[in-house]
Every structure is written in C-alpha cells, then in structure tokens.
Amino acid sequence: MPSQARENLNIRLRDVDQLLNAHTAITKFKNAEAAAQRLTGDLSQAANVFNALVTDPGRGKPKEVDALNRAAYVLLTSHFQGFVDDLHKEVGLLIIGNNAEEPEDVIKMLGNNRANPHVNVVNRIFASLGLYDVMDQISWRNCNNRSVKKRLTTALETRNKIAHGARESITKANVTQLKDFVVLLADALDAEVRIKAHPRIGHYPW
C-alpha cells in the first residue's frame, strides 16, 4: 500500500499526460493541415487528411511542440518535488505526533524550504526526522544507485536551465522517459521511507 503522498502524485501526473496529449493533437493537426493544402479535388487525397487526424503522428516539428515539451519537463520535476515535500510531511506527522504543540509548523521548519529535491536535500530533510540516507540504497533493475542519483541531478539541472530561459531542446521521448523515471523513483523512495519509519513509530506508516 503506498503513502497518500504517492497516491497524490498519480493525480498530479495527469497534468503531464494532458500536455503529452496536446503534443499529439497539435502534431496531428499540423499533419492534417499539410495534407489539406495538397488537395486537388481527388477524393483519394482527401483520405490523407482523415488519416493524418486519426493516426499516430510520430515526432512533431520542434518549433510547434518544443514549448509543450519544456513545460511538461519542468512540471514533472515540480511534481516530484511536491511528492517529496508531501511524503516528508506525512511521515513527519506520524513520527512527531503529539510531541510538539504545533507539529505541522515543526515539520515545515525541518522541510525543503523550496530547494530543488537534489539527493543531498532529500537525505537531509528526512534525516531531520531520524530517517537517514533514504536516497543511498534506492535502485531498480538496470538502474543502480549511482545511476539513479545521476539521472535525478541531470533532470534538475535541465529544469533549472529551462526555468532560467535556456532554450533546451526537449523531445517528447525525453518527457516520457523522465515521467517513467519519476514514477520509479517515487515508488522506491516511498518504500524506503516506509521501511525506515517502522522502528521510529513502531509500525509501518502505510
């Protein structure tokens, strides 16, 4: 059973799906528009317009969809950051419980403070709850811990470049790969925090 933070991430990721769907729709329209411009009255050519609207368009032209790709990329990293913050709060409330007069204020003070969720930042905020090195064992098939950390760092560096106006070339494949990575990383972090929280609260938190 995942945490509430992990379930909330699934809802947030629908925003990215909408952008990816818009990417496909724009490319289909552009392909259909190009087919329509080639019409000469031949009914067989009219079928090309229909086909352009209903078939997989493949890759879109960068100038038409690059802004969507960049937006989706930034949104993915932001949603991962939101997941980390939510997970920290969720497990923090269980650990701190009634030991503080204002537990939410304490957790907020111990939290991310809007910093990008780099490996050291994630480790630090969970260490503030007594959950140490949560990022240091995470891995999955064909992706060892070193690769996980490197891919996260690269994604966040790319996000920062885009956010500061750099014209980074982001393809739909880049976005899809990052989404898959975020899902796997969130699953692994959720499981790691669950295990490390057990001795702190006497039972599994979710």
Q: What is the number of domains? A: 1
Q: What's the number of extended β-strand segments?
A: 0
- Rg calc: 22 Å
What's the rounded overall pLDDT mean?
Answer: 85
Q: Write down the secondary-structure element order.
A: HHHHHHH
- Return the structural class: mainly alpha
End-to-end Cα distance, whole Å, is 6 Å
Helix count equals 7
Into which percent range does the helicity of residues fall? over 70%
Main sheet summary: none
Uncertain residue segments: 40-54
Shape: elongated
Explain what this protein looks like in three dimensions.
The protein is 71% helix and 0% strand. α1 (4-37) runs antiparallel to α2, α3 (62-96) packs across α4 (103-110) and α3 runs parallel beside α7. The chain is elongated and about 55 Å long. The protein is mostly helical and 206 residues long. The protein has one domain. The chain has seven helices and no strands. It has helices at 4-37, 43-54, 62-96, 103-110, 119-127, 145-163, 172-201.
Features:
single chain, 206 residues, mainly alpha
Q: How do the strands and helices of this protein lay out in sequence?
A:
Layout: H1 4-37, H2 43-54, H3 62-96, H4 103-110, H5 119-127, H6 145-163, H7 172-201
Helix pairs in contact: 1-2, 1-3, 1-7, 3-4, 3-6, 3-7
Brief rundown of the structure:
By secondary structure, the protein is mostly helical. The chain contains 7 helices and no strands.
